[in-house]
């Protein structure tokens, strides 16, 4: 059902994919203890998507500089002024360059200030450069800590505000936040809460487990399974991943991390005397060792020049079959939510606008994702469902009726479609009360008023037979209802 990026495999060895387009608007949070495989996961995501979307990685440990050689990321050492960093960030957006922002070697305070300057620079880009890009932040709890810690208040404030902007307001500007953290409880709540997609790795502490269960809408008991996850195994959930918790084993990566796990090495087999000689012999004659030469950070102008010539990634290619399947599933979920509204005996008395907030909540719970119908679309769908036509939408005559309804005020569309359906099927004209109900009212006089309104505007013609029963004609559709008693009590629309 997914478009795009291959993350790894599920328990039966099937590929697990990440819908990159959906990710751009719904963001991702990765959580797992140190060594659970978060950085590896981010690297897999970066490698698989490098050709499709612009990327910026905020890299506190210099873990990702290896991407430069293989994928052409520009490495930016953070040791420069805030003004320079912001200028570089602006240039990155203009030229759609993928970069690694390397914060290795800076103290915590400087890391926060640099990351904030960088994020703000990306965020403040001019509107014409709001191209979509992934902004990946590893060890995000460093930049959006939940507690005070030993960092200066000032650094903490600017860094937290930059991270909040990224996660809460970045979407409109094309910035898709992907954040990884060791400890959910150490990450500011508002920053975590903005992600709709989750990859949960091994988690030991109860307090992190509780936060994870909370974010995922799981029972605390279910979240206990996070304790037993192996390195590289995660549980995926969210509109860009899976609508149900899905275990995934992250696949291999092509570039190497510089910070692999240290491996045990037995000490050399040597006698004590021999070692003493090696250490103390001739100490006087030997010059003190030179400190290892530090890599000279590149000059800002040099980086700005490089960014000018970095090729932009090509747009995401989409697999039309996967898109169709994904769309169909989304449509089915939306139809189902709307059917529930129609089945609710109280719902007919509430207008589409009044039901819309509830609808949004249902969409969120069912993980519909970012492409939720807007109010106008919801009104149209609700009108169709209330007319009982959801199964026969493709009918050509019905399409014309829906089209005609769309020229009426939104709240009247359902009434018109209810009448049109009776016309199409040659069923008796609905009673005043039924029309009022489709409008969200209990008053039969409202039903008569609606008919007059639509008749005056040429949508239909009302006639009475010799027994006073109503017949409604639809001149443009060529349909006519059977005679129906306008005063009949309304049953629930079938
Ligand atoms: N899916 C995986 N397949 C193979 N090795 C992995 C996988 N995930 C992590 N590792 C290895 O496990 C170690 C810890 O992973 P890392 O990503 O650095 O963890 P974290 O960032 O969560 O601390 C690294 O040596 C890494 O190469
Ligand atoms: Mg890591």
Account of the 3D structure:
The chain has 494 residues and is an alpha/beta fold. The protein has 2 domains: 4-253, Rossmann fold (3-Layer(aba) Sandwich); 323-480, no CATH class. Helices cover 41% and strands 14% of the residues. It contains 18 helices and 14 strands. The protein starts with a strand and ends in a 14-residue tail after the last strand. The mean pLDDT is 86. Residues 38-39, 138 line the site of magnesium ion.
Secondary-structure topology with pairs:
Layout: E1 4-9, E2 15-19, H1 20-26, E3 28-31, H2 38-49, E4 54-59, H3 67-71, E5 74-77, H4 82-95, E6 99-102, H5 108-123, E7 133-137, H6 153-169, E8 175-181, H7 189-193, E9 197-200, H8 206-216, H9 220-223, E10 233-238, E11 242-250, H10 272-280, H11 300-309, H12 320-343, H13 352-365, H14 375-386, H15 396-405, H16 413-425, H17 432-439, H18 444-456, E12 461-464, E13 470-474, E14 479-480
Parallel strand pairs: 3-8, 3-9, 4-6, 4-7, 5-6, 7-8
Antiparallel strand pairs: 1-2, 1-11, 9-10, 10-11, 12-13, 13-14
Distance between the termini: 34 Å
Name the average pLDDT.
Answer: 86
CATH C-level name of the largest domain: Alpha Beta
Radius of gyration: 31 Å
Structural class category:
alpha/beta
Query: Strand order, biggest sheet?
Result: 2-1-11-10-9-3-8-7-4-6-5
Low-confidence region ranges: none
Percentage of residues in helical conformation: 40-55%
Number of domains: 2
Throw out a few tags for this protein:
single chain, 494 residues, alpha/beta, Rossmann fold, eleven-stranded mixed β-sheet, 18 helices, 41% helix, 14% strand, elongated, binds adenosine-5'-diphosphate, binds magnesium ion
